[in-house]
Every structure is written in C-alpha cells, then in structure tokens.
Amino acid sequence: MLLAACSGNSATNRANNTAPAPPTPAVGSVTPGSPAPPVGTAGARSSATAGPAPPGATPAPQALSPSRVETVKLATEVLLDRYYKPLNSNDLLNAAWRGASGKAPPAAAQVTAPRLTGNRDADWSAFSAAYQQLYNRAGGAVSGTDLSFAAVQAMITSLHDDHTYFLSPQDNQARQAEDQGGGIVGIGVTLGQGPPWTIQDVVAGSPADQASVKVGDVITAVNGQDVASAGSSTLTNLLRGDEGTSLSVTLRKASGGTATVTLQRARIVPPALETRLLPGGIGYIALHEFADADARYAGGLNIAQTLDAALQSFEQGGVKGWVLDLRGNPGGSSQTLSEVAGRFQPTGDVLVSRDRNGVLTDEPVDGHLFSVQRPLAILINGGSASSSELLSEMMKEYGRAHLVGQHTAGAVNGGLVVELPDGAAFQYTVVEALSGKNHTPLDGAGVSPDDAVSGRGDSSDILSGGSDAQYQDAMQWVLSQAAKRPTLALQPAPAGSALPYAQVQSLLQPFAALASDVPADDASPQGYLILTHPNELAIGIAADTTSAAQYADTVRSRHWQGSYDQFFGPGEPQPFIITIDLYADPAGAHAAASTDDFSTGLKQVAAPAKLGDETVAYQGFGVADGSDQIVWRRGRIVFTVQFTADPGQESFAPALAVAQKLDQQAASLPQP
Q1: Can you say how many angstroms the Cα of residue 408 is from the centroid of all Cα atoms in its chain?
Q2: What pLDDT does residue 32 have?
Q3: Helical ranges in 318-411 per DSSP H
Q4: Residue 196 belongs to a domain
C-alpha cells in the first residue's frame, strides 16, 4: 500500500500467509503537488481482459472503442466501489462530463449533458450515451484517449483529495521507474504540496544541487513562464523533459532576492537513504523516501538491508546515538515504513487503517530490531508527509524518539494505483491512516515536534559536513541522553521457527518463477522479498484480518520458516504475485494451505485443477475484488499464485497457467 505522502499495502494478496506489500510510489526528482500515495488494498490490472477463459488459457486483451469510454467506466467503478468514502454516481459523472465537454471543441458544445439521478446503472447508461455523442460530434478534433483522460482527471479533481490524483502516461512511466530505483529525468528537487512551489529537498549531486538551489527557495518561473500559481501537472511538465536538454528556472531565494539559473536535465536516481558517522559519535541517517521494500539499490540491497549495514557500521565506528532525518520525505510504502520502524522499536503498530466500512486494521513493526539500541532523535518539517508522519508519531507515542524541527505536512492516508489504458494511471485513497498506538487521525492535522526549531534544514548540507539549527538541537539531545543511558534494554519480538535470510533464500530460490513463466504482457519482474519474521507476514493486510498480532501468533504456531515473494508486471498491486512459504513440517504447511486466514477479503471457491498434494482456490471480494488465487502444497512448501485484474474481468486462467509451470518445476526438484 502506498503512503506517499504515505504508502503501504493491504488487501488480500495471499490466502495462506499474508499479503506481500505491493510497491508504493516513491519520491522522484520532481514531486510537486500532493504527497505520494498511502496505504491500500487490492488494485486494478493495467489492461482489461476478456473473461472467463477456458482453464489454462490466458484471456485475450479486450478491444477498446475509439472513444475510450471504457477508461471512464473503469475509473468510475473503482471510485464507487473502493474509495475510502462512499460516493454518488451522479456527482462523479457530472464532474466527468464537465471535464470531457471542456476538452471537446466548440462544435461539440451543443450535445446535451446527461441527466443523472444517483442511480448507478441508469447514470452510466445516460453518461455513456452522451459521451459517445460528444466524441462523434468532435469529429476527430480530439482523440478518444485525450477525451477520456480529461473526464477521469476532472472526476478525480472533484474529490479534493491530496492522495487521489491522475497520472499522465509520462508521469506514470516516471512513477514506475522511481518505484524500482530507476530514477526519472528532471532537475533533482522535491516540492511542497501546492503554490507557492517551495523546494523541500534537493538531491545531492543533481543539477539543482550543482546550481546551488537550496531548500526554501521558491520556483516562480520556468523558461520565462510564470508558475507562481500554476497547478502541479503544469509545473511538472515544464520541469521534466528529455535527458540532456536545458531549461531556465527563476527562484525567489530563501536567503533573499531572486535568481535565474540554467539547468541541464539529468536522470536522477536519488539514494533512498544516505548515512554518515558525524563528529561527536552521531549516526546520521537521511531517509529521503519510503521506497518499495523490493526496490534494490547499491550492492543489490533494499532499504532495510542498507539501514542494517549502516547501523552496524556505526557500531564499529563508536556511535553514541542516532539522528534520523525525515525532512522533505513525502512518504511511500507502508511495508518499508514497518521495516524502518522495526529497526528501532521492538513491538507495536506503525499505523492503524480505517476502511470505508469503519473497520480498523493494525499494521505492526516488522520484528527485525537492531541488536544494539541507542538514543534516537527524528528531524521533521513541513515537507515530512505520510509515512514520515506515521513513523514520527509512532516513535513519539511509544516514547522511543525525540522529535525536532517543525510541524509536518498533515498528508496521511493510504492509496492504491490503478493502471488505465493508453499508459495513464490514477491513485485513489482506499483507507484512512491513523497513528499506531493512540489511533490519532493525522491527515489534515500533522505531527508536532517535541522541540520546535525554526530554520530550513537540508540533509545535503549535513552530509557534506555542514549543519543547521535543527540538527544541532537533535544532536545535543542525543548526546545528553547517551551520557545518561548509552544503550536501551529492548528485546525483539520472538521469531518462532523462522530461518536466517540467506538460508531461506538458498532453500526457496530454486522453486522461484522465471519471467518466462509469466504471460508476456506482465513478464517484467518488479522485484522480490525474502521474509524471515512472522510480523512481516502481517504487514499490509488491511481489510484481510482483524488482528495482525493474532495472525503472527498463528504463523508461529504452524512453524513457519520463511517466505520468498515475487512480483511481476506493472500496477499496484502487480498483476502477478507469487509466494513460496516454507514450514518445518507438512502438518504446518497443510494448516496454512487449507485455512482461509483472510475471510474478510477472500472466499474459497472450487479449485480449477489439482496441483501438488492439495489445492485450494480463493476469489477476492470487497476491496480485494479482482484478485484470484491458487494455493497448493508440496510437502512442507506452500505455493500461492495471485492474479489481479480489473474488477469484473477476473479469471483463474492466468494464475493457473503460471501455477502449473511452477508445480511441474517443483515436482522435479528435491524437497528442501
């Protein structure tokens, strides 16, 4: 699920264990407007599929009409069925009509607006008929793609929700690259949530950094075009462009006066986090975004592994305490949020989500407490949003960290991304995210620091040997605490029968899927996760189980030893999620395979084929609508293949085709 100005995952991704967290939007080189997405559940697939297909066959792509009315229908259905607040069809479709008619040429203005009453089916019939007339009257002056995008964007804008927004094909492509650490082409800044466009962060080494652009500077013009009151999409389109091209940016400097700088666009691949052991024994951690947990960075490590390596290096260097800098961090994946929190806090929830029916679901820390615990201060400011706010508030509520800086953005909810035809996408809010311990709503409220310190902090200055008033305050607090109590007596949550990371990887990797096992449209591998603590299985399962702690206890009782998760194809969640779970004995594997642990999101249905020693199948409903799972066991291994399509286009055929290949491979391998 995304918590970008928050992010994470939820919804049912697996029947037997838990839902692996789908990736969350990451912070790019330019991030104007609303924070990145938050917590979510099952999402929609990137392309419509014709349903039902014969067993073993992959559904053929459904042809789209020239008018692309299907794009508007998909967005309408997702919002009506899954948005975290109930919506009315007439409100949504009236907004869609305003967007479409505004995009059409004047010659089409004579088309009568549809009469909408609030009856969902009748409203769609009226809208689609009028929309088709509008497209026909336009006579080719506007494409069906552009007309549908205008309708969807207007519908989304009418909700006035920071976490629900439209992504053009260009922005969506950039988001996908960012999610996997591939970066985007831009100038290397993160901006606030609206005009005036104040710079919240500058990527070290980026074109903006090299031109001495600073945190607190305000962009007033791009290539001479006034952007003082421009919308986020307008500004983004002006700042982005082809790699190597130039642009001029006019700034109102935080230090006073104005300046115009010429920048050359470059591919920005900002590190998710940067660390330094600073004078005085301070282990400094600048976390720029909560990137997807399966995204890999230097040395093939994800964020959690990179953080572990840094903390270990600090110990070898004689660290006294830690400062975690979340200033300008707009959020990201809820799974990464749980992983970062789990390094510093042994137990507790990082967030509690509330769905459209008022159901509360908790999300725990991941269980991987670092072996030595030291005093921790966290730096925050107005650019700290979503997952940053949830982490800060959690650490404050549990008394684990001291917050220094300025009030945060107050942009905290959970969302999912739906891929649309023709390359676009949109994110929608699926749950309200509350603080983990006190269940405090943070969206619109934000988090207050323990020590309010004015000024504009910049992690790039600290990483290059400089400082600022906020860091100085945090450093002094950490050192004062370290003088009283150098280490804290915290004990990790029990891991049960789980095996070490390397052993789980070695045992299960031979059973993993290859890109050639997945249909060509979705064959791009998006990443993998190896899970080695029961808490990790309870991350991101909002709407699937009522108690994460109880579920983790159930996993321990089955003598679970570890999991290997794979993600294939674009979207949130990805079309194909493959999970391989290892248990100490066949009895534990049988208990997992034969039990519906997520009865609030999955219902058992007849299995389409017999695989391995036993086979079950599940179909998602509610927010998990569109997800089909095939679960089977071979000895002490349980396999799950999940296929997620657009609601109403579900089919077990794609999941079964992949499952049969994996089972055939597993049958030829010795049991671990």
Answers
A1: 20
A2: 28
A3: 334-344, 387-397
A4: yes
Report yes or no on whether pTM surpasses 0.85. no
Q: Read off the tokens for 103.
A: 């995009």
Residue located via tokens 């999610």: 179
Contacts of 226 (CB under 8 A, 6+ apart): 220
Query: CA-CA distance, 199 to 212, in Å (whole number)?
Result: 12
Rounded to an integer, what distance in angstroms lies between the CA atom of residue 45 and that of residue 396?
Answer: 38
Rounded to 10 degrees, the C-alpha dihedral 2/339/329/288 comes to -120
Which of 417, 424, 629, 657 lies closest to 522, judged by CA? 657
* Residue 193, domain extent: 184-268
- Give me the pLDDT at residue 107, please: 79
Distance CA 593, CA 605 (A): 14
Residue written as token pair 């620091």? 449
pLDDT confidence of residue 647: 67
DSSP letter string over 36-63?
Answer: BP--------SS-B-----TTPPPPBPP
- Tell me whether residue 53 is exposed, middle or buried, using C-beta atoms within 10 angstroms of its C-beta: 0 to 12, 13 to 18, 19 or more: middle
CATH classification of the domain holding 239: 2.30.42.10
Tens-digit pLDDT profile for residues 144-159: 999 999 999 999 999 9
Comparing CA positions, the residue from 334, 31, 7 lying closest to residue 171 is 31
Number of domains in the chain: 1
- Residue 224 within a domain: yes
Residue type, 285: I
Q: Are 426 and 418 in contact (CB under 8 A)?
A: yes
| Residue 259 domain-assigned (yes or no) | yes
The stretches in the chain having pLDDT less than 70 are: 1-62, 177-183, 193, 270, 525, 540-546, 571-572, 623, 647-648
Taking only the tens place, the pLDDT of each residue in 547-595 is 888 889 999 999 999 999 999 987 667 899 999 999 999 999 999 999 9
Helix or strand or coil: residue 575? coil
Under a CB-based contact definition with an 8 Å cutoff, are residues 412 and 389 in contact?
yes
Residues 412 and 396: their CA atoms lie apart, in Å, by: 16
pLDDT for res 668: 97
Report the DSSP beta bridge partners of residue 630.
617, 641
Is the CB of residue 55 less than 8 Å from the CB of residue 615? no
CB neighbour list of residue 165: distance below 8 Å, 6 or more residues apart: 33, 34, 156, 426, 427
Q: Rounded CA gap, 161 and 638, in Å?
A: 40
In angstroms, the CA 110 to CA 344 distance is 63
Compute the chain's Rg from CA coordinates: 25
Residue 29: phi and psi, rounded to 5, are -70, -25
Q: Whats the size of the chain, residue-wise? A: 672
Residue 143 lies in a domain: no
